[in-house]
């Protein structure tokens, strides 16, 4: 379903002669998905990339662009940082709404309570539960920090 949405958005953007950043970003997304499809075939999975894997690809692309934008800002290249941020907006169109810090903290405390976690040794299973429930909607780096703070 997500794959079809991305393909449709690319076709629409190309027909409408949308801004070049949107078309180029959608092409990059498609290329990343096709790379994952090829890797899946190498693993003897004929169906290609799953929805979950596509969400992971999109999250990774956003993170890469955020890091690049920060680096460009530090290197006094604001025009390149702005381009990276424009690409982030295009990618986020296909991702679920991102949870706020308060929502992440709440989800972390719910999982800790549910699993009766008492220390850092329980962090792995709690993070696994978060990833299963909130794939693509949560920054797991932040969630891990909040969980570590809660469990220490």
Folded structure, characterized:
With 152 residues, the chain is an all-alpha fold. It has seven helices and no strands. The chain has two domains: 2-92, Uncharacterised protein YqeY/AIM41, N-terminal domain (Hypothetical Protein Yqey, Chain: A, domain1); 101-151, Orthogonal Bundle (Arc Repressor Mutant, subunit A). The chain has helices spanning 2-15, 20-42, 51-74, 78-92, 101-114, 123-134, 140-151. The mean pLDDT is 90.
Q: How many domains make up the coordinates?
A: 2
Total beta strands: 0
SSE class: mainly alpha
The CATH homologous superfamily of the largest domain corresponds to Uncharacterised protein YqeY/AIM41, N-terminal domain
CATH architecture descriptor of the largest domain? Orthogonal Bundle
Tell me the layout of helices and strands.
Blueprint: H1 2-15, H2 20-42, H3 51-74, H4 78-92, H5 101-114, H6 123-134, H7 140-151
